[in-house]
Amino acid sequence: MTDVVIIGAKGRMGDTLVRCVQQSDVLNLAAVMERSGCEEGLESLGCVCGTDAQEVLTKVPGAVVVDFTAPEATLNLLEIASVTGNPVVIGTTGMTNEQIAKVEEFAKKVPVFLAPNMSVGVNVLLKVLPELVRMLGDTYDMEMTEIHHNKKVDSPSGTALKLAQCMAEARGLVYDEVKKHSRDGIIGARTKDELGVMAVRGGDVVGDHTAYFLGPGERIEVTHRAHSRETFAQGALRAARWLSTQKPGKLYDMSDVLEKK
């Protein structure tokens, strides 16, 4: 039985994670956390609850923390977890390269797992798309679109960035040198190497991502659609079970979990 701590337990993702843990035969809801002023009703879950990470994590040694919040909040949590020794699964998106570098430093002190998308399907795409890039060759233009609900705060999505990065690297390109996150006005013809990543926002879309390979006389579209947040929750909890037996030293991701299946 793996003890789990859910951060932001009353949010959209947090609520889904809590329900999935409660329904599991191999996971135990050891603790939940929320921001100060939002904690009302947490005691009904029958576990440790609170708003102070230091206080909560001290009460549940060894429990795996699952965090889908915001970059700064995640870094603050990691600072505390690196002292208490709790492993941390991170689904937070929108991190800068500098923030990810800080996460990597914390991973030397405590087991840390980071993935912008926890779904098994997306992580299989990360394995498949580079092979498609290599087989098609450089005569095919590469683009990416993503669609999310109207409450999403970061753009492009972390998943779109990760997918586009793996495509660029497979072609031997540096993503930050070829990315195009917007196009407007008289900008001229598309350059040979540029890779556009466009975001659409609206409604309650959980997450759609499409990779395009546009060549002479044809195009290939590879699409992943998430039908519910439970897809991400189950992936994160699968990662939590796996991470509970790991040691610090590297920043783990979903490829580690899938390869150790």
What does this entry look like structurally?
It is elongated and about 60 Å long. α1 crosses α8 and α2 (53-59) packs across α3 (71-84). The protein has 2 domains: 2-118 and 229-259, 3-Layer(aba) Sandwich (Rossmann fold), CATH 3.40.50.720; 120-226, 2-Layer Sandwich (Dihydrodipicolinate Reductase, domain 2), CATH 3.30.360.10. The protein is of the alpha/beta class. Helix content is 37%, strand content 24%. The protein has a 7-stranded parallel beta sheet, sandwiched between helices. It has a 5-stranded mixed beta sheet with strand order 8-9-7-10-11.
Number of domains: 2
The sequence of SSEs as H and E is EHEEHEHEHEHEHHEEEEHEH
Distance between the termini: 18 Å
CATH class designation of the largest domain: Alpha Beta
Radius of gyration: 19 Å
What is the structural class?
A: alpha/beta
CATH superfamily of the largest domain: NAD(P)-binding Rossmann-like Domain
Task: Sum up the structure in keywords.
24% strand, alpha/beta, five-stranded mixed beta sheet, 37% helix, 12 strands, seven-stranded parallel beta sheet, Rossmann fold, 261 residues, Dihydrodipicolinate Reductase, domain 2, 2 domains, elongated
